[in-house]
Fold:
Amino acid sequence: EAVVSTLSTEAVVSTQSTGNKNMIAGGGAPETELSIKLSQYAATLSGVESHCIKAFAESLEIVPFTLAENAGLSPINIVTELRNRHTLGEVFAGINVKKSCITNITEENVLQPLLVSISAITLASETVRAILKIDDIVNTR
Structure:
């Protein structure tokens, strides 16, 4: 629910910014924002649920990490700066591979299809849930 809510918010703000309801910011911006929001939500929980949500939030950072790495940038430094900028409220901060830095990615017109992001996150979630269910780690609902 938190994932859908955050992506929906990102889509609404992106629509207002870009005028295209089917596109959201690229450059690892949505994954970073979602990771931060899920980490904050996990902090309000306890037990296994908290650990699972926190781990999922951390896993989302592989997208900007890989993007930075593939662009020949220092992934640890870039992802740390990206996370800090999002924490400061810069929801469109993303990795600009052309400029080798973090910029407002929507101003650079770096967009990605909303459906691709939703599909990837949904598939990843379902896969993790299936694994956890098989291993009897978490009682799935």
